[in-house]
Structures
1.
Amino acid sequence: MTTEPMLVGNTRAPAAAPRRRWWLWLGGLAVVLGLALLVVRLRAGESAPPAGAHAAHPGAAVVAQPARRGEFDRTLDGIGTVTPFATVTVRSRVDGQLMAVHFTEGDAVQAGDLLAEIDPRPYAVSLAQAQGQMARDQALLANARVDLDRYRKLVAQDSIPKQQLDTQGALVAQFEGAVQADQAQIDSAKLQLTYSRITAPISGRLGLRLMDAGNIVHASDPGGLVTIAQLQPIAVLFTLPEDTVQDVLEKVRSGVVLSVEAYDRSQQRQLASGTLLTVDNAIDATTGTLRMKAQFPNTDGALFPNQFVNARLLLERHSDATLIDAAAVQRGPDGTYVYVVQPDHTAVQRPVRLGLSDGDTVMVEAGVAPGELVIVDGADAVRPGKPVTLQTPLPTALP
């Protein structure tokens, strides 16, 4: 009985010892492997080349557009109003009843067309009366002339005093004057009769009728019968800033015919094309602008009196110009320049001499050739000679 516990204790002690050794060996192996891996990574990091040593530098992200060849117009924009060359209010020149109206509102008429008729009978009566008075005075004149011839013979025979001859001569002159006055009365009556037929004084478009047939009209009526506006050709009065006056006047003095285009209020649709007719003789001191007048054929009737338009005056035209976006132009201590993208995607700084500009587009006189890519966005991050990354597709070939 005393030996059995000892046997049991001896058999359990050897089983626990191997388990502890196994866990110790496993932990030590993990530590060694971890240290070895750390050393390998450290050595690999020290021996590896820098990240960008063999890779291409991506460069600054930019947007580029090619310079193009095309027409460039220097234009001056002004606000204008359509104005007829002539506007006439048709009035009666005699008094009387309006017998007939021979026009339709809004019609186009030619000068001389019959528009209305005034009752002609009173003026026909006046004409007949003047003609009758003239016939009476002509008869008296004829009789006085016969007496004058008779008196001349009698005075030659010394049969009557010369004073009687002189008196008869004065009477003949008096009747001659009366006949002339009668002729003037006849002409006046004929003219009044002509005025009873109201005709169009100019060619143009009729407005709304202001009086109907049957009314009594007077020469002193302020409203008249109708208005006529000349629409073909038609004029546009517009203003330009005084800073541009000398450029315009130089062209006008040299005999250059400047074209003018009329656009609608939104400046999206062209209404008509014409030419500059004349300029005003003084600058408006309150606005600092000069009024100008342009003429338009207006054969299609696109322009209407008192219509608001935007006038665009073409001052210069360059048919073969090199054009770039205005955003590409940079300014520095040495003047203006642009960044040009080379075929190898590097950017170079190129000085340029600029010409005319319309705000969004600039004409380049020297420094850039058509087809070359110029940077229009992202130029702040560009360094001369360094590569760039284009945000727009690069053309297949650069001139």
2.
Amino acid sequence: MKVISFILAGGSGKELGVLTRHRAKTAIPFGGRYRLIDFCLSNCANSGVKDIFVLAQYNPKSLINHIGMGKPWDLDRKTGGVYILQPSYNGEIAQWYKGTADALLQNLDLISDSDADYVLILSGDQVYTMNYQNIINQHIESSKPVTIAFKEIDPSMNQSLGMLSVNDSRVITGFVEKPRSSNYKYAFMGIYLFNREYLIKSLYNKPRDLVFDLLMPQIEDRMVGGYEFKSFWQDVGSLSVYYRTSMGLLEDRSFLLDKDLPMFTRNKELAPSRFLSESNVTNSILGSGCTISGNVENSIIFPGVYISEGVSIEDSIILPFSKINRNAVIKSAVIDKMVKVEEDVIIGVDTDDSSGGFITTIGKGSKIKKNTKIGKGTMVEPESIVSEDLV
């Protein structure tokens, strides 16, 4: 039995605002150490899936740099490994991927030439740890040509996700995309497992979208099995969900600590973080290479961040190599990489909401000049120089 995997990593992630202006959604840093793509790559490595194709399109540079040859996931090998596939010129016309199914169609030769029995298709912007062998084993037992993973969720979340109905035989009987109201209680996780030959035949019809053009007719014909996943899972599709999911790690990060499903990533080799005598850090996650002199509370600080004396950071996420200078105050904000915050800056003025609706975001490489105030919910574009109040 052999499985190859395709990771869908081409989405633009517009709902994540400035965090995806210069990077693919799957390359967004997460949890003080990782990037979103690490979850799929680590799950594959832990499940024995060693042939992985990443379908990339939008702003792929940071994603390509992060994955490299796949060494952190033990994928730099002579047989198998990880490959990044981008739209290419075929001698007649350059073709962008027109959808998730079209991305597979444009790489149909790789599926056809493979000696794999099954094709595992994964969404690359989700946070979870899973041994894919469990869904593979159920798929083989079911005799269905397609199996998809689902998870029971809080009904309040169904407006942002595709929702499923499942019968007692674990067969998918219905699907609705982001319903305003629905009796369905199971969310589609964006995980598909196909019999390889069946997928090849399905792609001959030239579908664009995996769900609407390919999966829906199969659901109507009761050809799709369902695998229920009961551990932590979150689709990170918007800034509010990204913020809320990140902050949730401060309460419980047990799913990241499973010794049987370790998380792997590529990180710079930095010295241990240093806490100076003036520092005060409570209920926070800190990466390596940081220098902390100020106060940090309920926050996630990525590697290489410098926090000067007199600084107050609360309920915030500071991405790698940003520098927060003396007496700055930051509350309920996401500060992207390599941002410089000068003295006496206030970010997140009067912010009293931590649900994600009032999150202030500062784009990569921006400079916030001294004595500037930036109000709650404000979005500063990458590489900006802010010298006037934005409140």
